[in-house]
Structure formats: structure tokens, C-alpha cells
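Late entry, evening session. Most of the bench is empty. Finally got around to the prediction I had been postponing all week. Sequence below, unchanged from the version circulated by S.P.
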Amino acid sequence: VQLQACGGGLVHAGGSLKLSCAASGFTTKFYAIGWFRQAPGREREGVSCVSYSDGSIYYADSVKGRFTISSDNANKKVYLQMNNLKPEDTAVYYCAGDPDGWGSLREDEYNYWGQGTLVTVSS
């Protein structure tokens, strides 16, 4: 399984970015993709996830109403549209794969991780 995240960059507060995660190698169509982030000096935290098993979507409270997760099933990509970005959203963002498929914001549920993409929000 390979996961590749991209789309990070530098943006002013209030701006938007769209992250993309390309997933390949899953032997089942019922899996979940999650987005996590790790800010400097902080633990990694779950941001959002989507389950291909039942279509469930979850968001961390800190991003509800600002971030939207979506999927392009044909191209096996998952996107994270991030609007109204705040300086506290600055972090390395990772996408991860859970072959059990139900979706969770707990990182211990995920077996596969992509490399991170850096998002920097200036004030």
C-alpha cells in the first residue's frame, strides 16, 4: 500500500489550501483514509477521515465547518479542502490508510502512512 500526500504550502490566515492523497495497493475496496497533522512540539492528531465501508465521515472539532474531506473513487484520491485557515493549523499533514475500513481519528487504527506535506499559515 502506498499513500502520497501533496498540496501543502504557505498561505495567509483566512486563506485556503486543498490537500490531495493518492492511495494505491489496497487489496480491499473497503478501507478508510484519514488525514492527520503534527504541529511542532505537539503530538500528531486526527483531522478528518472517510470510510469506504459505509461512507462515514468524521472531523475533529477544531476543523469542523472549515475543512471538507472528499473522495474521487475512480482515481483513488482523497482530498482535504481547508478553508479559513488559522495559524494554529500550521503542521505537517499526513494521510493514512486503515484496511479495516470503518474510519477513525485515532492514529493507532491506521496501518499505512504517507509522507507528510507541510502547511504553514501566517498571521
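Two things to note before I forget:
Residues 40 and 91 are 7 Å apart (CA to CA).
The longest strand covers residues 17-24.
Will write this up properly tomorrow.
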